[in-house]
Amino acid sequence: MKTIRYALTATLLSAAAVSAHAVDQVKVWAAACANCHGTNGHAQPGMEALAGKDKDDLTQKLLDFKAGRKPATIMHQLTKGYSDDELRAIAAYFAAQKK
């Protein structure tokens, strides 16, 4: 019984560590957006704020930039550095931030 409990505890701790690392990685990706869109998506006047925006809308915009469907000065270049799943994670991160 103790062996099963130890195995379950180890599994849960491993899953928590992986999850925490994934969250940290998304924060690193999102930090690259801070120059234009502000820390955690809270932009200065004149720039587009991302915090609290709809996740699906943000995802679509990012994917459109990447595919060249949406005109941009720099976003089309930046988005090409991320996979579609990474862009979805970034969009979810900003959507989860408070306005």
Automatic annotation (TrEMBL):
<keyword id="KW-0479">Metal-binding</keyword>
<dbReference type="Pfam" id="PF13442">
    <property type="entry name" value="Cytochrome_CBB3"/>
</dbReference>
<dbReference type="GO" id="GO:0020037">
    <property type="term" value="F:heme binding"/>
</dbReference>
<protein>
    <submittedName>
        <fullName>Cytochrome subunit of sulfide dehydrogenase</fullName>
    </submittedName>
</protein>
<dbReference type="InterPro" id="IPR009056">
    <property type="entry name" value="Cyt_c-like_dom"/>
</dbReference>
<keyword id="KW-0732">Signal</keyword>
<keyword id="KW-0249">Electron transport</keyword>
<dbReference type="GO" id="GO:0009055">
    <property type="term" value="F:electron transfer activity"/>
</dbReference>
<keyword id="KW-0408">Iron</keyword>
<feature type="domain" description="Cytochrome c">
    <location>
        <begin position="20"/>
        <end position="98"/>
    </location>
</feature>
<dbReference type="InterPro" id="IPR050597">
    <property type="entry name" value="Cytochrome_c_Oxidase_Subunit"/>
</dbReference>
<keyword id="KW-0813">Transport</keyword>
<dbReference type="InterPro" id="IPR036909">
    <property type="entry name" value="Cyt_c-like_dom_sf"/>
</dbReference>
<keyword id="KW-0349">Heme</keyword>
<feature type="signal peptide">
    <location>
        <begin position="1"/>
        <end position="22"/>
    </location>
</feature>
<dbReference type="GO" id="GO:0046872">
    <property type="term" value="F:metal ion binding"/>
</dbReference>
